[in-house]
């Protein structure tokens, strides 16, 4: 439903824009850009991805270590529970439950940290790519630039795809800044 509403709104906006362009006999010039591809292919995007993978690997290792410790404690409890009195067994089971909750909280916190880090690393790149798209659109007099992955573009001709140009310009601009 949400997608249909968005598609209807986009159709109306694009349709109105096309009518307005025809009213003044200006040529309509459309372009498509795949922002996901641009993010993944830009040098800064590759660097961010590498950094994120390193952060993820560290956090994943820590979660796995905690999981192994929890499994070992549980196995020890299972072996010893047969010879424990009920009070000791209940106490040990409560300790295990507490450790399990801590493990789950730590795993969720790690996941949240990774998501925040991803946003922190990619936001400036995405903003830079959007600026590059705007710059390229103005320079080449594009009437509309659609995002391939989000706007429901099912088909476009290769000649309308400016993704590679955006990546090249963005990379060149970043090299100049360094």
Straight-line distance between termini: 46 Å
> What is the CATH-assigned architecture?
2-Layer Sandwich
Shape: elongated
As a percent range, the share of strand residues is: under 5%
Q: State the domain count.
A: 1
CATH homology superfamily name: Skp domain
Q: Examine the coordinates and then state which fold CATH places here, giving the name of the CATH topology.
A: Protein Binding, DinI Protein, Chain A
- Average pLDDT taken over every residue: 86
- What string, H for helix and E for strand, traces the elements in order? HEHHHEH
- Which regions have little confidence, pLDDT < 50, spanning 5+ residues? 1-8
**What is the helix content?**
over 70%
Q: In what order do the strands lie side by side in the largest sheet? A: 1-2
Q: What's the multimeric state?
A: single chain
Secondary structure tally, helices:
5
Number of strands: 2
Structural class: mainly alpha
- Describe the largest sheet: 2 strands, parallel
What does the radius of gyration come to? 26 Å
- Please report the first level of CATH classification, the CATH class: Alpha Beta
Structure characterization notes:
The protein has about 180 residues and is mainly alpha-helical. The protein has a single domain (about 25-175), classed as Skp domain (Protein Binding, DinI Protein, Chain A), CATH 3.30.910. It has five helices and two strands, in the order H-E-H-H-H-E-H. The protein has helices spanning about 1-25, 35-40, 45-80, 85-140, 165-175; strands at about 30-35, 145. The protein has a two-stranded parallel ribbon. Helix 2 packs across helix 5 and helix 3 runs antiparallel to helix 4 (about 85-140). The protein is elongated. The protein starts with a helix and ends with a helix. About 10% of the residues are buried.
């Amino acid at each position: 439903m949400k997608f249909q509403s968005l598609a209807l709104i986009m159709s109306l906006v694009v349709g109105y824009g096309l009518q307005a362009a025809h009213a003044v006999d200006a040529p309509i010039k459309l372009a498509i850009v795949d922002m996901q591809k641009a993010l993944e292919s830009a040098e800064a995007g590759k660097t961010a991805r590498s950094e994120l993978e390193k952060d993820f690997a560290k956090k994943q290792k820590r979660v796995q270590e905690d999981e192994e410790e929890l499994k070992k404690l549980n196995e020890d409890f299972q072996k010893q529970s047969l010879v424990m009195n009920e009070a000791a067994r209940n106490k040990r089971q409560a300790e295990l439950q507490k450790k399990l909750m801590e493990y789950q909280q730590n795993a969720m916190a790690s996941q949240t940290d990774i998501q925040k880090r991803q946003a922190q690393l990619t936001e400036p790149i995405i903003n830079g790519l959007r600026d590059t798209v705007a710059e390229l659109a103005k320079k080449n007099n594009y009437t509309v630039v659609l995002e391939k992955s989000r706007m429901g573009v099912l088909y476009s001709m290769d000649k309308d795809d400016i993704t590679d140009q955006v990546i090249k310009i963005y990379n060149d601009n970043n090299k100049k800044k360094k």
